[in-house]
Amino acid sequence: MRMSLAYVLILLILAGACTPSGTEAPPPDDDAAGAIGSALDWDHTPGAELVRIDTAGRTGDPANDLNILPFCVLFGDGHVIWVDPYADPEQTLEDRVDEQTVRAFLEYVIGSGFYSWSSDEGIFIPATDEPDEGPIIERIAVTLYGETHVINALSNWPPDAFANILSRCQRLSAAPVLYVPPGAWVSAVPSEMRSDVPSLPWDVFRASYPDVNLSTMTLENPVWATGDLVHTFWDIARQGRMQITEGNQAYRIVVQVPFLQPYAPPAPPAAGS
Known about the structure:
23% of the residues lie in helices and 24% in strands. The protein is of the alpha+beta class and 273 residues long. Strands 6-5-1-2-3-4-7 form a seven-stranded antiparallel sheet, with helices on one face. A five-stranded mixed sheet has the order 9-11-12-8-10.
């Protein structure tokens, strides 16, 4: 019989693994975490989110906001995608880890006191809502037994909790590879030509992609890109404030990956998962 999440939390409380609010998080109790882990079950379906570590809010810059990637996402089938914290320009890594590794990570998160933390003044930002106006704040979402629990930086989590959980997520894999999406929605956002921003003329790509028309690739009418084209746009988008120029017009490239970036449109039906 499937155990309810509430029962798992009772195990946590009885094990005394909760961390007092506002204090530095001690290492999780191994015995308590093991007891919790043995009761855990989750959706193993590819693409089913298990843990998402990202930010909420937006800066007001559409290109920047829509290009933002989560720090780390772990899916139920062991697929993990994360941003390399040491790479400049930005790189995204991926791997597939085994169930034992997934379970150990969940034990760590829960044993750190995750379910004992609560958002400040009832502030709760669901991971699937449209981005809120306001400051960028860190958050962690865990989905178990069909329930998603989200804790953000306005909560009472210990000062080092977010950094510790994120670091553990980014170290789940011993042999990561570079991640490039198999497909993504691509837009070109017109912007003011700036001399203080790195530029790349679209002419260098025109021979390879003669059918691409940047002026028609609006946020309202993005183009579904695959293969070499999505690789090219993905690399451009990961360069930060890189501007692509075509004649006297500059563009910011937006690349949105369904399932990875929560505000991306769904993939076209023919694209599959």
